[in-house]
What does this fold into?
Amino acid sequence: MIGMKQNKVTFKALRFPSPSVLVTGPRCLVLEVQVNLKATLASLTIDTLALDGPGAQQHFQAEGKVSKELVESSCRVIIREQQGLFFPKVKSSSNSSVRTKAATRQRRNTPSSILFHKTSLEIKLGSLVDEQVNALVAPMINRQLNSTKIGKCLLKKAGNAIDSKFNSAAANRTFAPGDVLQVDAPPSLGCSKLFFIECSPWDGVSGFSVQALWKGLKRCLNLCAQQYLCSVAFPVIGPGRVLKYPLSEAIQVLTETLRQFGLSAFSGCLSTIHIIIQPGYPESEECYHDVSRHLSLNLYQEGQAIFRSLTSDLDDITMTVGGGAKLQLVFGDITNETTDIVVNTTNFVDFHIDGVCKDILAVAGPEVEAELRGANVNRRSVFVSRSGWFPCKAICHVSGRRDTIEQLVCNIISYCENYGYKSVAIPAICAGAGGLDPGVVASAILRGVKAATSSTSFHYITNIRLVLIKINVFLAFKEEAMQMFSTAVINRVPQRPHVQQQQQQPPSLSVSTDLSILHSTSTSQKSVFVFLGLSRKDVDDARTKLKCLYQAQCSTQTFKKEELVGLHPGRHGGSEAGGSLTVSG
It folds into this structure.
């Protein structure tokens, strides 16, 4: 808790039956903490910030989410959207600086409030034992802590403390597959509870082991809700040498259990669920993509949002670079790109070694491969071919080395600008079959982007996408980008359900476009944010920073009358006499 010293006592926030804080520890310390807690609550300050138009809330829910979180951490405040949020009245002395309007204390049944009280899903990379959550879920076999790799990792980190607690909780008990053992976590772990599911090895799709795992996962989620635990971390239980589940089946069991929990009445009690994927294994990338795909499909049920949001450590990262262009780091397969230009990395000799070249040519077709075989290219040159069946306008082929990567990237970006291309997708040149260290490749490519974009303003190229297919490569680029572009606004783009989905049609002169929606984003509407902090200064600083962040993203564009040809007359929101339309946001 911000502003409270946690010395030999533990805090637990409870939301039911009414908002409260449970303090546990030695009696004398609990009484002292109670006094300090009341004093801290009495100093709380609450205020609001209104920004023109509803677009501010949309921005800070998506592209600006990371920036908002940085403001919260640096200013030690909590920022929430006013609509549909519930701020309980703080009971304190009469001189408390907390002021809340009645409207903000009322819980309204709006789409925003419905989403706010749903569970957020986060796909995390790393080790389960390092997670900082209320509860960890782990498998066990035959009531043995060291029967699985996760159990051995827990023993290695927590030692005799967890061994003793586990044996004490399991003593004189028998466990059938699907049963759950609850263990109080030792202080060396970043959780308060451990839930161990008794598992059995894979015995087929219709076997008993799947049903048992399903039962155990469901029981863990229900225990979290019953005990008012706010966060829990799950591994993908099943794959490996012990349980021997097919990866796809293990993921199906986990994600379907989460979906069913999201539909239940208890899901709002649990604010965050982490799904942990250990990087560095042959199936790590496949595991991430499958988990992400299943959870993305489970965000909705019959048009209604089941979960509040889905984020991951591998979400796209977008940053503004020189020349007015956007640089994006994308974890994905370059053969799924639809940019104007796609870059292929090859040695111009062997086109069937596993990697980017083989994948791109498999899509582009034999005519593009034939062009490559006849090419005569030096190490610093870019060879441009037709796109073949690849959904782009042209393919740039390069053969990189450690000392040429930076210049090649500069040349690629210059080519796009000179020939009027707006977007380009670039892989991690030489990080795959080329064998170079991902950190070295990341540094070279990002230096090339920075050099190419800092020398001039662009008229055409607006989007530079670095598409990275390996987890370790994406993380290396992410780390390097955070250092190299420290002054840029860096945003992570999560997946967030929209309450109402509407299919957007591309603009067409043969269809009358209704711009009456522009009136709904006029300055008469506001995006209101609520700030809660420990002092007036913290709240004022946070309000100022958030306002500046939003204003830095705003722009105004005026469309001339001739640019509005084809739009429905009289519905463009502009003056007939002036013949123009000004849009701000």
Residues 84-116, 498-524, 568-577 have pLDDT under 50 and may be disordered. The CA atoms of residues 177 and 406 lie 56 Å apart. The domain at 317-492 is CATH 3.40.220.10 (Leucine Aminopeptidase, subunit E; domain 1).
